[in-house]
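Structure in, sequence out. Go:
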């Protein structure tokens, strides 16, 4: 019996704010999207690489 493989998607609907990336990451790890958004903001302030990573994920990760 094979375990169901999880896939990363951008979220649609209630968990989507800007691009759905944080909501999708929250669904993947089964955590509250607010926690992921706060972590993203904390990383975006001092690290511009986090901003570009978010933009790239917005473009690359498929929508659910």
């Amino acid at each position: 019996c094979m375990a169901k493989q999880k896939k990363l998607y951008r979220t649609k609907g209630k968990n989507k704010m800007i691009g759905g990336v944080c909501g999708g990451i929250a669904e993947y790890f089964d955590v509250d999207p607010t926690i992921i958004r706060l972590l993203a903001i904390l990383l975006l302030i001092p690290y511009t690489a986090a901003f570009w990573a978010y933009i790239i994920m917005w473009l690359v990760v498929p929508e659910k």
